[in-house]
Design goal:
heterodimer, A: mainly alpha, 2 strands, B: 231 residues, alpha+beta, six-stranded antiparallel β-sheet, 6 helices
């Protein structure tokens, strides 16, 4: 599907499918494992993350010309943590019922790598509208991914879905799925399944390359190395290119 | 765009970060000042939001507390906080082997004519599987001994499907109108409860059961201490 790059729709599609943060970028693994003991918890965490992600991406993009390059990280952290704290206060004061169900997840969002990751990789270098939709897309992609993980864990590990019993009465819940080892298992199997179906991170790279050869060049520092379809250059090739140019 | 240029756009640049974002390096002093300004503004905005939400948050906490008190002592008309003797309280908790348990507040439950009916205690035990277990316990005191009216959870973050079963009626109902007779403490058992002060443990969640038991016992110990102090 060919969408014009950096438009709102393309950003949404990218965040939900092409570069899904949980299954393709493999970011935000900690909350993906810790808060997916049930489908409801997963959705709560996912939606809270989406709100913060969109807002922080927007603000960071608006300030991208002002924030000095060497102070990027501290500036981003201050902005992200401030947003999270504000949302925490506002929910506690004005929407108590929602706060009671989501309360513990809000502070956890500050340490979610996706937010820092997108601030650094996208919002710091792109237009505010595109950044907002990038945050929205990534957040929704994350929500979808952890909803999937949470559903599997809840159905297999507790026999319920959204708190309602759905497995037959005689089903003995396999408790390991609601504990940490089960989380890793579900996550791993889902990614393995996607690799088998050649979707997500399992998409075949456009050029094959020998990983045992020493690599140099501009791709070495890039997060997408091996995933964007370009073959990283070996040190020999970089040296040769440097000599001829 | 050719494939190579497209990738250069999305990948990183090894030439040096300042060059890749096209920003001039204005020096550490300038950058520090900008960061200080950002932090100052953030701090001020946070302070403002905190100020706006302080009153509603306090009102919500009060409402939750009152709802929890009423849930465990429906007959009472008013709840007056009782000042606690910290030293006596610590001794009582230690004497009963109630490690990592604290009594947050004790309220005397009174009926409309001001007569004492019993107490409502907010106690916490931090030995839960997922953190603190905070309960509100309603205790009716009388000549025939203590009766636990019921408990209500103010904080419970255990594992879904295991420790969180503590919120199921089958576990919580054990505490409804539990007459302790001569005992001043409850105990949990895995072999089927027999005594008046026993409860059945949650199968597969002994850690949670232990935490809840200790929190309730902390509440009972608090009431004993208050009554001893008063008499």
């Amino acid at each position: 599907m060919k969408l014009k790059k950096n438009t709102p729709v393309e950003r949404l599609w990218n965040g939900i499918f092409t570069e899904n943060p949980a299954f393709v970028l493999v970011l935000g693994t900690c909350p993906a494992l810790a808060t997916t003991t049930s489908a409801t918890n997963a959705i709560g965490m996912g939606l809270s993350t989406t709100v913060i992600l969109s807002l922080s991406n927007l603000l960071i993009s608006l300030l991208r010309k002002v924030i000095p390059d060497r102070m990027r990280m501290p500036a981003y952290i201050v902005i992200i943590a401030s947003f999270v704290t504000m949302v925490d206060f506002l929910m506690e004061g004005f929407v108590p019922s929602l706060y009671a169900s989501l309360g513990i997840y809000i502070p956890l969002i500050v340490v979610n790598c996706i937010i820092m990751g997108r601030a650094e990789a996208y919002a710091g270098k792109n237009q505010p509208l595109a950044s907002f939709f990038d945050g929205l897309g990534m957040g929704l992609g994350f929500t979808l991914a952890i909803f999937l993980i949470g559903s599997f864990r809840e159905i297999l590990g507790a026999g319920t879905w959204f708190g309602r019993q759905i497995m037959p009465a005689g089903y003995v819940p396999i408790n390991i799925f609601v504990l940490a080892p089960g989380a890793f298992l579900v996550y791993g199997f889902l990614i393995a399944g996607m690799n088998k179906l050649k979707i997500g991170a399992g998409r075949k790279p456009k050029e094959e390359w020998d990983p045992t050869v020493k690599m140099c060049g501009e791709c070495m520092n890039c997060m997408k190395m091996g995933m964007c379809g370009k073959k990283p250059e070996s040190c020999e090739e970089v040296k040769k290119a440097g000599e001829t140019s | 765009m050719s494939a190579k240029e497209e990738i250069k756009d999305s990948c990183c640049n090894t030439e040096g970060l300042t060059k890749s974002t096209g920003k001039q390096d204005k020096g550490v002093v300038h950058d520090t000042i900008v960061l200080t300004i950002i932090t100052l503004v953030a701090g001020l905005v946070l302070g403002g939001v905190h100020h706006i939400t302080a009153a509603p948050i306090a009102a919500q906490e009060k409402a939750t507390m009152e709802a929890a008190q009423r849930a465990v002592f429906a007959d009472a008309d008013s709840f007056d906080e009782v000042p606690l003797d910290d030293a006596a309280m610590e001794k009582a908790l230690a004497d009963n082997g109630l490690t990592r348990t604290t009594v947050n507040a004790v309220y005397a439950a009174k009926d409309s004519s001001g007569t004492d009916l019993g107490y409502v205690v907010d106690s916490t035990n931090s030995e839960g599987y997922g953190g603190d277990v905070e309960v509100m316990v309603g205790i009716t005191t009388g000549d025939s001994g203590y009766t636990v009216n019921g408990i209500s959870f103010l904080s419970l973050s255990e594992t879904a499907g295991m420790g969180m079963k503590a919120k199921n009626p089958e576990f919580m109902d054990q505490f409804t109108d539990m007459a302790l007779g001569d005992s001043r403490q409850i105990a949990y058992t895995k072999n089927g409860k027999s005594a008046a002060n026993e409860i059945d443990a949650i199968s597969g969640a002994t850690v949670t059961t232990n935490a809840v038991t200790k929190a309730v016992n902390g509440a009972l110990a608090a009431v004993s201490t208050v009554e001893e102090g008063a008499s």
